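hey team, just a heads up i'm posting the complex here instead of the shared drive bc the drive is being weird again. everything in one block, sequence lines first with there labels, then the predicted structure for the whole assembly after. its two chains so it's a bit long, scroll down
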Amino acid sequence: MANIWVLAEAGRGQVSEITFELLALGREVATQSGAPLEAVLLGSNARELAQKLGAADTVLYADNAALADPVPENAATALAQLIGEKQPAAVLVPLTNLSVDVGVVLAAQLGVPFLNYCKDLKADGGNLTATCVLYGGKMEAAVTAAAKPAIIGILPGARSVEQGRSDKPANITDVAVSLAAPKVRFKKYLEPETSDVDITQKDFLVAVGRGIQTRDNIELAEELAATMGGAVCGSRPVIDQGWLGLSRQVGKSGMLVKPKLYVTLGISGAPEHVEGMKNSQCIIAVNTDAAAPIFNVAHYGIVGDALEIAPALIEKIKARKG
Amino acid sequence: MDILVLMKVVPDVVEELEVGSDGKSLDTGFLRTILNERDDHALEQALLLKDKHGGKVTLLTLDAPDIDDVLFTALAKGADRAVKICGAGSVSSTQMAARLFGETIAKTPGLLPVDLVLTGVSAIDDLDGLLAAPIAQKLGWPYAGVVTQATLADKTATVVKEFAGGVRGEYDVPTPAVLGIQAAEKPPRYVPVAKVRAAMKSQTIESVDAPAVEAAAGVEVQQMAKPRVTGHAEMLEGSADEVADKLCELLAKRGLL
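-- predicted structure starts here --
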């Protein structure tokens, strides 16, 4: 099998942790297929970052002023040129908001599918088989990725970050790409909204999801959080409804939290949310659906109505605290 | 300012999902579908832009069971025209859906010109691609995805894309363009059932024949199954009071209470 590529995600002077997760997964696939593992870093004056990618056999580093900002069209065009020259078997793309557009634009340019929601990948006799998470985590599909090249979006958490880090000096190969002015122009970064509460610093979080039903019920979550000096956060649907501000969002687009205690009320456990909270020390999930994926990551689970459980819990905690 | 909104229905995951007899797809026997949540946001963003700039919002979908209800609801919310692509059968491949949408937009008289094509950035069944980018490629238009804000002036859409940790990026996108919407600037508007019924009486849904497109390839499902559970919560049972007691015990044991 031809080379396995990992698209390194770097922005604002840092390599994203998911890059190392992909390098760890990519290494397994490369070993199974007997092919080299190559990391591709697209950037400008980013050689220092390329040096962090020693887990790959080679780092293909494209240094171009047009790659300084996150412009998916430029990154995809650069990748397409490199793919044309070097013909890799597969390109592993981080499934993050920053990189997903690079993957889908690249696939569109090459006229191949973008294999999405992949949490595992194996090579067997020249074939790539991916395990993909569908329907909000309720199903998994074993999928053959037969496109040449296979462009595969890898979910965060596929492997540990530590597995993909290496002290080995990176073997960097400079590659040239030719980029015209993009149609879509990057203007600026917008920093996170300032908030009264920094949920990443709290030991106790009560997270509300769609199952909380109405905005008024958030008061109940606030009351529960207050019993232990914590704060309320939420999953995407609650933020989209405008019930909580963006600074309270946990998950893919929001914050990564790891409090001592994380209580979920009416959260199903879609992969996008789990990504942001799975490292909490103790997770308690309350959901009416016994098959909700949140119970696969929680330490303790209750199948029931959050609107009944939360008041009982508030009362008991208050009683214990006197 | 005219906008085309592409919408599709997806399985409602509130319901129990089962694998079909082929072992490779969902059992559609009792499957309930709902509008893809992100498409609902795309519709809302289109209606917000229409509220501000005027113009027409046209809905384009693939024919599917219950799709008429989705379209009439969207018309009742303020969309102007609804068109469904008929005769393609059940389309489970997003790559295929993109080809059907792209070809239909390019070839059907009266759908173009528009300033923007909006669609949800992703859906829970997007296994072999996301819809917007290949459509933009087909039309030769710029594309931006994971969009949470869009304003329009002088043939340019200024959009905000979400990254991670609350950081966002602002971009200028020349129109016409295709945008993948992550979330509208406001929650999708509510429409009373009476208004939907009125739309059913006063408005019609147009149909166009599905164009001939190349079949999707490169991704083949071998097997579908419910996830093998690697870890599972210790489940607490009993009345609300009983489980609250048990939780307090556990929290106390862990030194959290």
